[in-house]
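pinging the channel bc i need a second pair of eyes. not urgent but kinda urgent?? the chain im working w is below, pasted from the shared doc
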Amino acid sequence: MEARAIARYVRRSPRKVRQVVDLIRGKHVDHALNILHFTAKAAAKPIEKTIRSAVANILNTEGATKVEPEQLVIKEAWVDKGFAFRRFRAASMGRAMRMRRPTCHITIVVSDMQSN
């Protein structure tokens, strides 16, 4: 049994979020949450929130009576690129310089140990 959670339009660069996602891929959920809690990167917070959402999703499904939260594993985790907000900033000699504010989509799939 598996469940998925997607955090969309997270205001972080996908490259920076992928660095943190690579730390937790394939680990037990409680171990991954422990890693994220002590990671100094800003991307750890939305990833932790997405993992907790995926765990809640698997516990609220119909056949979840036999699923124990300690047995859950992060089966898949990936980060996709979202659109980039385009903003303008004042530059020298009356010009305007474009700034890009990147976003990303975080997808986490958790499953129990038996279905691996």
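so The chain is about 30% helix and 40% strand. and Strands lie at 2-10, 72-90, 96-112. — does that match what u expected or am i reading it wrong
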